[in-house]
Amino acid sequence: MPPAPKYPSFAAVTMFVLGLLIVLARASQAMFEDPETADDRPATDEAESRVPATGAARIEQHADTGKKRHERRILGDESDPWSDETGRSGEDSPWGENRAEADARRAREPTTEDSPPEAVSEERAGGAQDDVNVSTSALLANVAFSQGLLGAAIVAAAWLADVPLAALGVRLGDPWSVGLPAVGVGAAVGVALYAANELSTTVADAAGVDYSEGLREALAPDTLGGWAVLLVVVLPVIAGFEELLFRAALVGAFATGFGVSPWLLAAFSTAAFAVGHGAQGPGGVAVTGLLGFALAAAFVLSGSLLVVVVAHYLVNALEFVVHEGLGVEWT
């Protein structure tokens, strides 16, 4: 006779992981604030205003996506701090120079006329590209490692607490739970949810609700290898972990272990799922909340973890490929 599941112990670990995830999400939210909101805040330190933005902060300053955003990364910002456009004519430069010092510095430095245009372009492209690649690679590695580690904690807790696989939406031998039919259902649900997600985003934009795409832009690679890592490693890890936590554990296992309505738990998990995506702004939280409830409903109706993992993965993958890879904007 199999041992009785220890649902209270599993619930304690699950809630700890959920709390840790929300804390980490809130801590990283400032990295992906809307640049227009950030521009409205006065600089808190003169040295801070002199430091050029790099990595995620620099990517977030350019709201463009796709090909245009990629070109701006490579070419950089050609604005003159002394021009009328910046409003600094006759004032100190952002690097602490006055006009005379800047003119003297420029007189000593070689100009682009001294070098062939091709060499200048290649130098700019190489330096900027290395910076973006390092930043994006670090972000991808951090996301994959942190969410993979938290997912492993949930799996270990379920195993130690003897939680049955069926309670987590894994019914071995049932093709509608772990077979190709489940994959097919998940794919259909994922495509439908992607379309609904784009429509919700369009409505949020039309209503003037802030929807930040900084996180997605920061994670978007610029190399073929980077795209392979994103689509084959990072996004599956994200989809697997988030569905394991928000749907399999918070809905499936809690409903089985404590006799609570799965629809009530779906509402709770949806709220937690939305709060965990605060980096996307108020509009992002609302849109993500709708997506989370749709995924919870799909889990309750299908009883399959695989269905919602596939659906979640497709929503994320299509967003990256369409917006960041192809540069297509529906709004």
From TrEMBL:
One of its GO terms (biological process) is CAAX-box protein maturation. Keywords: Hydrolase, Membrane, Transmembrane, Transmembrane helix. Signal peptide: none annotated. The keyword Acetylation does not apply. GO terms for molecular function: endopeptidase activity. It comes from the Archaea. Its EC number is 3.4.-.-. Residues 33-129 are annotated as: Disordered. Residues 227-318 form the CAAX prenyl protease 2/Lysostaphin resistance protein A-like domain. The lineage of its organism: Archaea, Methanobacteriati, Methanobacteriota, Stenosarchaea group, Halobacteria. It is an enzyme of class 3 (hydrolase). Residues 38-49, 98-111 have a biased composition (Basic and acidic residues). InterPro entries: Rce1/LyrA-like_dom. Pfam families: Rce1-like (PF02517). This is CPBP family intramembrane glutamic endopeptidase. The chain crosses the membrane at residues 149-170, 224-241, 248-275, 287-315.
